[in-house]
Amino acid sequence: MSNLLEVRDLHVTFRTPDRIVHAVNGVSFDVKRGETLGILGESGSGKSVTLRSILKLHPTHRTRWSGSIRLEGDEVLDMTGSVLADLRGNRVAMIFQEPATAFDPVFTVGHQIAETIKRHTGKSETDAWARAKDLLEMVRIPSPAQRLKAYPHEMSGGMRQRAMIALALSCNPSLLLADEPTTALDATVQIQVLLLIRELQRELALGVIFVTHDIGVAVEVSDRIGVMYAGKLVELGGVEQMVDAPRHPYTRGLLASTVHGGMRGRRLEAIPGAPPDLAEVPAACSFAPRCKYVEPKCLAAPPPLTAATEGHLVRCVGRIDTLAA
Amino acid sequence: MDSVLSVDRGGPAQPLLLAKNLRKHFPIPGGLLGRATRVVRAVDDLTLSVAKGETLGVVGESGCGKSTVARLLMRLIKPDRGTMILDGDPVDEPHGITVNELRRHVQMVFQDSYASLNPRLTIVETLAFAPKAHGLPHAEARGRSRDLLAKVGLEPDTFADRYPHELSGGQRQRVNIARALALRPRLVILDEAVSALDKSVEAQVLNMLVDLKDEFGLTYVFISHDLNVVQYLSDRVLVMYLGKIVEIGDVEAIYGKPQHPYTRALLSARPTMDPRRRTQEAPIQGDPPNPIDPPSGCRFRTRCPFAESVCAGTEPVLADTGKQSVACLMYVPGSGHSKAA
Ligand SMILES: Nc1ncnc2c1ncn2[C@@H]1O[C@H](COP(=O)(O)OP(=O)(O)OP(=O)(O)O)[C@@H](O)[C@H]1O
Ligand SMILES: Nc1ncnc2c1ncn2[C@@H]1O[C@H](COP(=O)(O)OP(=O)(O)O)[C@@H](O)[C@H]1O
Ligand code: SF4
Ligand code: SF4
Ligand SMILES: [Mg+2]
Ligand SMILES: [Mg+2]
């Protein structure tokens, strides 16, 4: 399969009035057509910044970026004007945790989806509404014709999230960016929306990047999983490789500290400390202050991302092969 | 400042807290002349007891009334009806204890670690505030606060004089927990207290909660939407749906042999950690209905795979089924449900 998206050595730095934030510090990955890449990481690790970079959504005057983001061969970071608008409108779509950011409260859901379709395809009013109805049907909203006339606030949380997915898919994107789209949903609704995204991804052969801080959610939707820490991918591999044989000490710590059934009464293996401040460019392994395997060479330079086995990349120079799994 | 209530009085068999038939409806302003016409039935006829030294977990989806229960148990809001008894003493009744006395022994930790701390007070001032208000001398209150900081894993010399904005979310939540312990309460209600924390930090705080419970002989009511965390911490678990208890029992029974269709759906909606056993089908469809006009009869019937016409007309009450209590007509002999004995 060819690569739909290629991100190479992406760096993103924000200038704020009182400091500089090195949010993303050299991220590289690919997404194939019809593949879901899960990106897992704690708050502030740079997941959303990475995702928004693919749409060039950062404030231009305060953001510095370098590296390369190629969608079907086209360099995103060089795009401006109508080319960038085409990228955002027709080629890449994004869904968020909060559907309120996608819908305007004063128009009906049908109106907003139909307008988007008209703007991007030049379809007639009637055809656009017909397509909007098909889209609601596709995201399994019951009585879609009626629901087109609903305002966003008249829908339940799960239904709004489905409608946002319909809006995102209205322009036939090849890549769907999902930033924690189920985090705010209730448990019984979250699983419905996860399954929907998985089904649509298959039906439409979409490339998907799914950002989450929940390992279970990542396991449900991903073909491969990347783990981010302090603005870098520290490990990237197939979902089974990542769950069965995680190699980076941070990934292992994250799995060990995630509570799941059968851990009752056992003491949890917490990772001590907290993630680093992003005010400086890391000069060593960013995880070193929290890592129980730290040794002098971890502090000499930032470790590179190297292949541990076929398709399994790890950013660690420690003697991880001798570590207990 | 330690009142007579701090010591155990009724013995281990007497519940620490007993709440009977609590009800809280919130009127919705609007309608003609701003008169309230409809109500949110946040909590309806809820009876529960909390045993001394246990952790009672409370689970349910958003809006089902978990936080309202927490606020009722602490009397941050007044129930429309119902009674509460703290270790044998009726609360807010002529021969019982006052609401202020109750609040000394029942403390609460909320999800939002930032909003619940005063940004203008240093950490040590925050912790000393309530003990001083209850008459503890200044120096003693500060000394106790520094001890508490150490107990929640924050080095006093480093953290005592910092302000809330100088702490991480996990550190602020430790401060909130320390503050809840400052008056030496008997019962601590934790409402989504670890929900905003990252997993690696959540594990630190959970370990700490276990240690503090042993050290101070605490009783917890632990409210969370995270079923795994509730299973980890709780001795007994209470499952809520639209303002009602649908099932309550020992943690092994609830997680091992859940009986209520909602409990079963909730448990199987958990994402898997095993890529070879991904969820193939959602256990139930739709969203929880609005608590403004809950369905008649069984409130779960609009989503229940076993609903029958009898479920619309008869409201199931909690009935003991051995290891747990369940509110479902399938477990009521002679109820008319085809699956009932
Ligand atoms: N526009 C901005 N200006 C300044 N700093 C920013 C901006 N956007 C993000 N950051 C910072 O960049 C870092 C990474 O943020 P990002 O939103 O990518 O985190 P995340 O991994 O998505 O976290 P979460 O799980 O909390 O959503 C954070 O320190 C954040 O505060
Ligand atoms: N002060 C209030 N006024 C009106 N409605 C309220 C108020 N507090 C809670 N509610 C409503 O009561 C129901 C239960 O809320 P809550 O106890 O916060 O649920 P949970 O904590 O389980 O998410 C919800 O529908 C909520 O919107
Ligand atoms: S490089 Fe060293 S400090 Fe960093 S994760 Fe590996 S062992 Fe730990
Ligand atoms: S009473 Fe009826 S609707 Fe309610 S849970 Fe039992 S079977 Fe389902
Ligand atoms: Mg984010
Ligand atoms: Mg709540």
Structure description:
- The complex is a heterodimer of chains A (325) and B (341).
- Chain A is built from 11 helices and 12 strands.
- Chain A has helices at 47-53, 81-91, 109-121, 125-138, 144-147, 157-169, 187-203, 215-221, 239-244, 249-257, 296-300; strands spanning 3-15, 20-32, 36-41, 63-71, 74-75, 92-95, 175-179, 207-212, 224-229, 232-238, 306-309, 312-314.
- In chain A, the strands form 2 sheets. Chain A has an 8-stranded mixed β-sheet, with helices on both faces.
- In chain A, helix 3 (109-121) crosses helix 4, helix 4 (125-138) packs across helix 6 (157-169) and helix 6 packs parallel to helix 7.
- The longest helix of chain A has 17 residues, at 187-203.
- The mean pLDDT of chain A is 92.
- Chain B is an alpha/beta fold and 341 residues long.
- Chain B has one domain (13-120, 163-331): Rossmann fold (3-Layer(aba) Sandwich), CATH 3.40.50.
- Chain B has 11 helices and 12 strands.
- In chain B, helix 4 (138-151) crosses helix 6 (169-181).
- The model of chain B has no long low-confidence stretch (mean pLDDT 92).
- One iron/sulfur cluster (SF4) binds next to loops of chain B.
Question: How would you summarize what this structure contains?
Answer:
Chain A is of the alpha/beta class. Helices cover 33% and strands 24% of the residues of chain A. Chain A has a single domain, classed as P-loop containing nucleotide triphosphate hydrolases (Rossmann fold), CATH 3.40.50.
List the helices and strands and how they pair.
The complex is a heterodimer of chains A (325) and B (341).
Chain A: E1 3-15, E2 20-32, E3 36-41, H1 47-53, E4 63-71, E5 74-75, H2 81-91, E6 92-95, H3 109-121, H4 125-138, H5 144-147, H6 157-169, E7 175-179, H7 187-203, E8 207-212, H8 215-221, E9 224-229, E10 232-238, H9 239-244, H10 249-257, H11 296-300, E11 306-309, E12 312-314
Parallel strand pairs in A: 3-8, 3-9, 6-7, 7-8
Antiparallel strand pairs in A: 1-2, 1-4, 4-5, 9-10, 10-12, 11-12
Helix pairs in contact in A: 3-4, 4-6, 6-7
Chain B: E1 17-28, E2 38-50, E3 55-59, H1 66-73, E4 81-86, E5 89-90, H2 99-105, E6 106-109, H3 123-133, H4 138-151, H5 156-159, H6 169-181, E7 187-191, H7 199-216, E8 219-223, H8 227-233, E9 236-241, E10 244-250, H9 251-256, H10 261-268, H11 309-313, E11 319-320, E12 324-326
Parallel strand pairs in B: 3-8, 3-9, 6-7, 7-8
Antiparallel strand pairs in B: 1-2, 1-4, 4-5, 9-10, 10-12, 11-12
Helix pairs in contact in B: 3-4, 4-6
The complex binds adenosine-5'-triphosphate, adenosine-5'-diphosphate, iron/sulfur cluster (2 copies) and magnesium ion (2 copies).
